[in-house]
Amino acid sequence: MRQLAQAGHVTAVLVRWPSTIAPEPAHELRHREVAWLHELGVRVRYTWAPLSSKGL
Predict the structure, then answer these.
(1) What's the pLDDT score for residue 13?
(2) Which of 1, 29, 34, 48 has the most CB atoms around its CB within 10 Å?
(3) Can you tell me the distance from the alpha carbon of 6 to that of 9, in angstroms, rounded to the nearest whole number?
(4) What does the pLDDT look like over 1-28, one tens digit per residue?
(5) Other CB atoms closer than 10 Å to residue 5's CB: what's the count?
(6) pLDDT at residue number 10
């Protein structure tokens, strides 16, 4: 995903759960990775109902 984002091949990432971005043992990395994707102009969207309804 990082290579695709850096190359400008994606504009959005759809994931079901935040643990898809970083596993539970490294949960603090999620915010960093999402921020990095946002800096590249990539939106992160969750398909899990409790998160998708919050517009995260």
Answers:
(1) 92
(2) 34
(3) 8
(4) 889 999 999 999 999 888 888 777 888 8
(5) 18
(6) 94
Looking at the predicted structure, is the pLDDT value of residue 54 above 80? no
Q: Which residues pair with 29 in a beta bridge?
A: none
**How far is Cα 28 from Cα 6, in angstroms, rounded to an integer?**
22
Closest by CA to 5, choosing from 33, 45, 27, is 33
| Nearest-angstrom CA–CA distance, 11 and 1 | 11
Tell me how many degrees the CA angle 24-51-29 measures, rounded to the nearest 5. 30
Nearest to 43 by CA among 16, 15, 13: 13
